[in-house]
Amino acid sequence: MNFEEMLRLIDKVSDSSLSSFEYETEELKLSIQCGEKAVLTATPAVSETELRENVSGKKEEPPEGKLVKSPLVGTFYAAPSQDAAPYVKVGDPVKKGQVLAIVEAMKLMNEIESDFDGTVAEVYVKNGESVEYGMPLFRIV
């Protein structure tokens, strides 16, 4: 995508009722967020493995287990309400289909369920944080 095409895309998104837009190819990841102040992010698309290699200088194996990723863009909530305990924490056993968290998107509360049985090894997101599509939320072993 060249610079002129990016400008046309920004204009189209700005003129529409979209609040955010993402475009990704093997070479480029483009994210546009509109609001009081529009934000444009364009980065080369890099896999998790490539990122680990670049940061550490050596090839690392991905962490053990399976990732539960966000199916949408929104706000992450670890518990059903502010004063309630989190659905799960590190060390908790989980079953396939069990609710792990909620992602709020466009005023809708979307339950995030585990895709597999196991134990919560890692929680990647804090309560109230914004999450992106495909962003890892939990690691289950």
Automatic annotation (TrEMBL):
One of its GO terms (molecular function) is acetyl-CoA carboxylase activity. GO terms for cellular component: acetyl-CoA carboxylase complex. Keywords: Biotin, Fatty acid biosynthesis, Fatty acid metabolism, Ligase, Lipid biosynthesis, Lipid metabolism. InterPro entries: AcCoA_biotinCC, Biotin_BS, Biotin_Carboxyl_Carrier/Decarb, Biotin_lipoyl, Single_hybrid_motif. It comes from the Bacteria. Residues 65-141 form the Lipoyl-binding domain. Pfam families: Biotin_lipoyl (PF00364). Pathway: Lipid metabolism; fatty acid biosynthesis. Signal peptide: none annotated. GO terms for biological process: fatty acid biosynthetic process. This protein is a component of the acetyl coenzyme A carboxylase complex; first, biotin carboxylase catalyzes the carboxylation of the carrier protein and then the transcarboxylase transfers the carboxyl group to form malonyl-CoA. This is Biotin carboxyl carrier protein of acetyl-CoA carboxylase. It comes from Fusicatenibacter faecihominis.
